[in-house]
Write a structure and sequence with these properties.
The chain is an all-alpha fold. The protein has 17 helices and no strands.
């Protein structure tokens, strides 16, 4: 009884150190527990979490595996699965996510983790199946957002829009409006997309992704002056960003401003002499000059 109380005290100290990001000191406390009780599953799991945090995924897996041998809890399978992902042992990770859900079919964290895992390995339909289940069994807007994003990834923009518009309330209004804008952009509803992007920029004027989409949206509408204004803004914010420069070249070519386009092409090739787009644009201008 005295030993148990002592190990609990040491473990709790380790947890406090861990939460305060004193990882080396926390590790020593968890190891002290295991010296006194090498079957202490709490310390094994905590040590696994610590090793995962430090990037020592192999050691994390060893800790979780020992804990699972003693008591196959769902959280231990889930934690080991996450470490297997970082080790790129994808089959093992999938099996552990499934094992976690066999032990506890109601573990929503495991369901969400498995859905994200399927998205990473491009099994989007499997991910969608899980997100759909979570949407139907929970009132959390988070799952609707994740399902909508999964729909977007396979081009189901109308389905995604239905979910975004069905959200009860969210603290991520800017992000949702951004996604709505992206959906309408891909559906070629450029006017609605423009309004969505502008509403976002009214709050976050320096957001690269939003402003870039607005610029491309103008380009798609063939409003080249407006597109150029946005790309000018982006090149000032991100002068080293070659993608922005290449997009700006495309606008200038549409405006037949070959001199400015050539100047930017030279600046891109100075950094990346083999840039295919820049070389293509350069060749296009040469052919026009002939």
């Amino acid at each position: 009884m005295i030993i148990m109380e002592e190990t609990i005290k040491i473990n709790n100290k380790g947890v406090e150190l861990f939460l305060n990001k004193n990882l080396d000191e926390a590790e020593q406390e968890f190891l002290k527990v295991l010296v006194k009780d090498d079957f202490n599953i709490t310390a094994l799991n905590n040590l696994g979490l610590l090793y995962h945090q430090k990037g020592n995924y192999e050691e994390a897996v060893v800790c979780y595996s020992k804990a699972i041998e003693i008591q196959p809890k769902d959280t231990y399978y889930l934690n080991r699965a996450n470490s297997f992902v970082f080790l790129e042992k994808l089959n093992e990770a999938e099996e552990d996510y499934k094992a976690c859900l066999r032990v506890n079919p109601d573990n929503v964290n495991a369901k969400a983790s498995l859905a994200r895992f399927y998205e990473v390995i491009k099994k989007t339909e499997s991910a969608i199946h899980i997100w759909e289940h979570l949407v139907h069994t929970s009132t959390e807007d988070f799952y609707k957002i994740e399902l909508a994003k999964a729909y977007m990834s396979i081009g189901k923009y109308k389905d995604a829009l239905s979910l975004f518009h069905a959200l009860n309330s969210t603290n991520e209004e800017i992000l949702i409006n951004y996604y709505i804008g992206v959906c309408h952009f891909n559906l070629k509803n450029y006017g609605i997309a423009e309004d969505a992007f502008k509403s976002c920029l009214a709050v976050e004027p320096n957001n690269y992704n939003i402003r870039h989409y607005l610029a491309v949206n103008y380009l798609s509408k063939e409003e080249f002056e407006s597109a150029l204004t946005e790309f000018d803004f982006l090149t000032k914010m991100y002068p080293e960003n070659l993608k922005v420069k290449l997009d700006k070249i495309a606008v200038l070519l549409n405006m037949h401003d070959f001199k400015k386009a050539s100047e930017i092409i030279k600046s891109v090739l100075a950094v990346d002499p083999k840039n295919e787009k820049a070389l293509y644009y350069n060749k296009t201008i040469d052919e026009i000059d002939r």
